[in-house]
Amino acid sequence: MAAIYSGIHLKLKSAKTPWGDKLKLARFAWISHQCFLPNKEQVLMDWVNHTLTGYYSKKLRFGDEIVEGLWIYLNDILHSKKLQKLTQQGKIITIRATIAQMINDRIGEHSGKVPLNDCTSSLTAVLSCCQGILTSPSFSIIYTSHGELLVDLVGKLALLLCRRLGSPEALRSTQLFDVLLLALDQYLIVQRQQHNQSRVFLQVCGLLLQPLLLLRHLLSSRCWRSEDEVAVRQHLSKETCNKIQAALHSGLFHADFLNSYKEELLQSGEPQPRRASFSKALATPVGTMLSKMADANFFGPDLQPAVAAASLPLLYRLALESYCRDGNQLLAFHIFARFFDSLGFPQLWGKTERPAADRNPGLLALDQLLAAISGGNVYNVAVDRIRCGGVQFALYARVADTLLTYPCPAAPAWFRCLRTLILLNHLIVEPDLDELVSLAWIDASVDDPRARRAQEALLTTLLETYTKLRQLPRLFKEVLAIITRPAADELRQPVLSAGLAQQLCRCLLEVPASQVLDIWDLILKSQEFLIPDLAGNPDLALKVLTISTLLNSILFNMKSLDGKTPTPVILRAQVLMDKMARTVVVPLFHVAKDPDAKGSALWAERAVSSALLLSHTWVEIDHLLKLNCGRYVSPGGEAEVEEGNLQSCLPQVGWGDLGRLLAEGWGQSNQLSRHCLQLLAIQKMKRIMLQPGPQAAREAASLRSAAVYVVQSGKAAVRDAGEAPGWDGGLGTINDETLAVAYWHLVTSNLALLVPYLPGEELAYLADAVMRNLLLRETREVGPDPANPLSIPTMCESLINSSILPEVQPLHRAILHALLERVRGLVSLPDLDVPARLLEQLGDSGEARQGGGNQRGSVSESPAPRPQGSSLLLAYDALSPKSPSLPPLSEQQFDLLLRSLDVLSALRLDSLSGADHLRCFLLLVSLVTAVRPSSGKSHASKGLWALSKCYTLLTVLQTGANANAVFKLAHAGDIFEKVTAPLFLASGELAGCEGYPEFLGAVQRFLAEFTQAIVERKQSMCLNLEQFVAFLSDAWLSSKVTEEWRPVAEQSLSVALSTLSQTLVNTLQCSEKARHKGTAQHSLLTQLTGLLGPVLQSHLDRGGRLDLTLTMPCVAGLLQAELCLAGLEDGVPTEGGSPDVRGLQHADLYQRTCLQVLHQLTSPTEDLGLLQKQLEFLQAFCSASELCTERDSGTGSVAILCAVKALLAAPWMTVQIIQQLDVQLTGLLRCIAERCTEQQFYLIVKSITRGLEVSNLWKGQHQDVVSSLILTTLLLKCSLSGDVGKAVWFTAPQIITALLVLCKEAAVDQPWGCKVTLFSLETLAVLLQQGEGILSNPHHVTLAFDALVCVPMDHLRLDEYGMIFRAIQEVLFSILQSQPKVLLNAAPTFLKCFNRLVISIMHKGRQKCIGEKGTTTVSEVILECARLVERMYTHIASKTEEFAMFSAFTVAQYINELQKVTLDADVKRHLTGGIYHLLDLVTECDLRFLNALLQTGVREVFKELYNNYTHYHKSKRQGEEKYTA
User: Fold this and answer.
1) Quick one: which of 902, 1093, 1348, 1459 has the most CB atoms within 10 Å?
2) 1267-1284 burial code (b ≥16 CB/10 A, e <16)
3) Predicted confidence band at 317 (pLDDT cuts at 50, 70, 90)?
4) Half-sphere exposure (Cβ direction) of 1116: Cα atoms closer than 13 Å
């Protein structure tokens, strides 16, 4: 064998051996263990290296297949496990640097612009070889020791990746990214180790800057496709950009280059001597970088501007990070100046043919550069003016001039640049303020939402700036000048958008009233100037209308004058009011009266709109000033408000003028005019209603006519609105499309004013409009527009859910009747009417006289007479259970019915009048009887949801104020039959539909509420219930006769029977006064149990396994009924049965149900209600001694406890679920403890305490520890007495010690540490609370402090932090309240533990800094913790004896920590409120001690705190003590 493999080395060197055979021999030699060569691995590595070198140096010739095979062979060697083992064993294998050069050359060939032919060796193998070399420390030295090779590799890899990104093919491989990241990692290491930083700068600028910037631009601007590799899209591209940024940062902006940048940019008079290694490129570093980025030959003419624009902000940000400190702000500015000049402003923009889209990259770059200047504090106004001669200001002014000379409002960056300049210094744009207002505000045409948001941010900053400068009139002077100068006003957008109007409101509230009056005066002067030339000029009329709208917004958002306003301001306001009426409003009306204005002249319409808008504004402001300012005297005098006369509202203008205008059609043809007339009518109503004294008939008639006018004037608009767009709430945006929304907003905002004076016809119209929009809203899938939030469906939805609608009874009733009529027509129900005789009994005499009312819900005017003494409900054939059902509804009808029922549930049915209550009840009972879910799955589900809503609404009606009105309509037993009869006719397919359990739950809740109402009425209770039981018995017997199994009928029957039995059980248990009725109720309960048992047994026998969700509550109800009957037979009504219960009739059913409950108890579920019902059943099961016995180990106490422990140890159990099951678990555990024997209880306690041992954590049994902790907590909450209670408290010291050890161990156990700690602290808190007066040894209590100290408070998630914080606070509170004796000696330890909480919440509640990760607002969890600290401070302050001595030290600790952090305002408010209570314990001696102890800075903080305490808290407390006995 050895002879066969000998001579391989000679064959590899032989020229006679074919290259294919050589490659095969080399592969065999590498993998074979029987081929012996001295230093075989190094020989083979040298051979492949020599062969590839010879091929690429033209010394050897062979085919491309052999070349590719050699690269693959080299790749296999580099990635082989054999090579890794040899390297780990310390064997030295080297690789020559020529391999690295060949790899670089091959990558360079593929990264070139000319595509290679197919005969080139595979690039994949070359990249894989490169990856193998870079990942091996012993091989990567060929790159790290030859820095030029590594730099060349990074550059060529970057170019190769750029070429891949530029091709249309998808990136389906991560190999190139992986290799580039490895190369960048190696380069960053070499770069940090390089001592000659000048060389690094030259390498980066010469070889890496261009390819890396191009690659970064392509990665950041690429539109990723779904075909691209997920890893590349998600993190590899971002990681590559981060590595590029790191390489450029350390290579271009090293600390050693600071002097070079200064010499180039600052041009100091005494240049420093250059070092020997100082190169020409390093002499001008900024110029070198800019020349590289300006190389269009490398990037291409199309890409060069975009790459430069994307790269300059990055380089500037890196420069700021490196140099913008220690007074180098001027250097940073000069770098910005060079970068700004390199963007080509304004040379490129000067070309008018250049499209606006080409400016976006430069604008984006300028925006980022200016943002970096603003965020880096580069510009200081005073320093620039005093020391630098305003050089920065001059450049920024040039930037602003460029932006305004070549505007680009379509680009959001253009607005952002101007905003940043204003934030830097408003004087930058002050000389061109008129151009700014014109281009960016008044004349700007912005359609893009992003640009509109940027524009709004700019204008918001502009308003805020001039508000702070108290120069808001100066700004509005420019605004008015722009509006009034000649321009195409038709193309202008509204001056104030919704967001800008809100900002203007905030600004007007901050400026003095005199400045608002200045703006008012400026606007009036502008209108005075325009009105004389208004006639016949539509553009001028539009300017007047725009200014009028602006004046309306300003006056409605200004701060109202009041009694504290200076007299000169009030007098000037009076003058302006008079001037506004005389010089603006009246002339506008006169212009409108001009004979030339007749017809439909556009200018006249606008003039009338302006006049009416200003009239409405004048009246509103005049009325507001009269109410708020007693010294204000209206120019209109104090004349009475008379119908047909506006003289009292607006001087020199009467309703006659408006009547003429209306007759000529101005108010009807112009939408704004019509809306203003509606507003004036509303204002007229307000003025009449505010007149003192009772209203005369004339005034009442005026109110009715005004209300009817407001409602009728917008009917056509709402009728024709259709899918009307939203409205932003501004009067200036009212047009044909938004008029209906504006009208509806006016009506719904003044319902309380309008409804009392509207006739029934108008109320019916409003109700119909509300219902039409509500029922159509379900089909509108598009959400509301944030810019235009008001729409008719949205307002109708808000109205129906508002609390004001039930207060407006006429409209509420009209909407209810309209809805009932729609539902009745939808389902084709017969006419439902309430007899007049019954209405008189209910007190609705008005409706009784009208035959049930004149609303749309009342259909019949003269109901047929009913036989006296019979149930009125039986007279309706439609409600009879034997009547044929109506045709099934379609899916669209079901959707509309569900929406209608949702609206009905929002109408507050618990506050209806008696007649409306009966109408709703009749409709819902009719729906329950008539609606039949079809066999289709979708239809059946919707039918079930509709029936569920009906039963839910019936339950709501039963809790209403007029619930007893139903019993005057029909007997309770008859109602029971009508409501439940359809359940027994339902198809069995419904049992498997979605929503079926919720349907049965709704039925059960209605029956429970209705039965309880019968019991509470105490009128024929037994007779009605016996009738219902007889009906259920007949239904059960009929199903047995037909032998047709209907699961829905049986389940409904079980629900009805169990609900009745539960009501009777509660009545017998809780009502001692009902003892004389005990015989009848006992008999009725016996009938129910005798019927419910066979029904459940039949369901079990026919259906196999029980469906726990539906039948287990029924089984539990049957068990409780039997236990109650057994207790009554013994003469003592019991709540949970007695230990001596014997003779249960359905014990087998209970046992089988219990087994199934225990089997499914630990199954994961999202239904918390099911878990609660299961635990309640187990509690009832354990209360029966006949069931829970030791003989049956499967259902005994121990088995149930084991199942509960397994439930608590389930991995899906969370803290929230356990908290919600606390009542059921505590009751079940108490029942188990009372039923089991002493020996069993001792074993239970021993098992629980064993679960608390720390060894369980070491074994990984964390869930067992958690379940034992929860069981211990529940056992302590049971408050057991007797021997079992003594047994529990005998183990209390052991439990406390175990909890201490668990807390210490959990502090280092990360996966389960938080959960174990949380439950340990909860157990400790409950033990201390329940152990008040029982724990006699103080040492056991002080162990709790040791447990609290070891609990970590850092590195927790926010939710975990909140839970741990609350648990620690609860333990401290338990010690404070329940163990007062311990505090006499352990107060310092208590304060130490509490101070940990205080310090922790102070650090969690500190303010977020700019640029810090996370939200800027403090979370609700932190606020809750701060409130707990405040409460604890209050309790500590109440323990004067224990804590008075330590109050000064506690305050000092708080002050020292407060000086270190800046607290959030809300957190500080709570903590300060708590420390104020502690300061109540501080004496004068303590104050002197604190002033002497605290350091200087901390002492100032304490003085401020104590001054606030004295001013806000101490004076208030002393005032309270003054009146305290």
Assistant:
1) 1348
2) bbbbbbbbbbbbebeeeb
3) very high
4) 21
